[in-house]
Amino acid sequence: DNASSGTSDILIRLQMTGADTLSWTFTSIRLSVGDTVHKCTVGGGDACTISQQGGDIENAWEPGEFVFLSENGVDICSDVGCYVEISVTHNGDTVAGDGATMVD
Questions:
Q1: Residues 6 or more apart from 35 whose CB is under 8 A from it?
Q2: Other CB atoms closer than 10 Å to residue 53's CB: what's the count?
Q3: How confident is the model at residue 97, as a pLDDT?
């Protein structure tokens, strides 16, 4: 989405393309901008919030489902061309996919 100086921007859309369903209990998503790391959670208690679209199971990321990573009261990206590293792990193992993106 578009980066701004606000603190509630939708930054990244991710789609699960694998065959496995990943329980949020065992899945971790972190965003890194420069030297700052932000934890993303479904419950919204951290700087980055995960919202789901298209799945049937509320506590899991399902094949084909989109999730959106949004700022939650913290300005994670405010500049056009903000470079964001993405880390997705499940049970401590890195989930395959792009490790970074530019947020405009």
A1: none
A2: 10
A3: 83
